[in-house]
Amino acid sequence: MTTTTTGAQRLPAHDPLRRSTERYFTVLQRNPSAYVRFPASSQQLPSILVSRTTPLGTVIGQVQATAPAPHLIDYYLTEFRQVAIDWSCGPRSCDYEAVRWLDVDRKSGQLRMTRRPYLLDYMEEEGEAREWRVEITAIWNGFTASQMVIIRFDDGNEFAGIDGSVGERERNFERFFEFD
């Protein structure tokens, strides 16, 4: 049996405490350009309404940027913030970094739920806002463009529409859920 010394302890080589974690990340340098851009929308940010009962793995919307070669655009989530009402200091809105429960497909720009949003049930009980602001960055040939998207959860109705901004068109997705 092989052992190694870590501090004052001697751990066997196969000990689960010796496990390490590898994290892969991409460093994006902001380089705004007219070559890559998201379609201009009205003064309002694009928003997506999601049902609380939406199953994991569901595509809830899609973003699409334009570039001279659109099939070469890569999409990344660059900011993920939760917006809530802070009653401790009076009725004011605050936002903070949140646990990511959404992922963007790097090539297509589809937004997919990967886990249940943290504290969603608690926020509903407290009557707080259920809103997340997600910044998506598109990269083409070293040039970047970013777009902020607002994601809101409905009040738990059985039937919920999902309103996603897709490219230069607005699309309405209708999801129906069956309950036993």
From TrEMBL:
Superkingdom assignment: Eukaryota
Protein name listed in UniProt: Similar to
Species the sequence originates in: Anisakis simplex (Herring worm)
Record lineage: Eukaryota, Metazoa, Ecdysozoa, Nematoda, Chromadorea
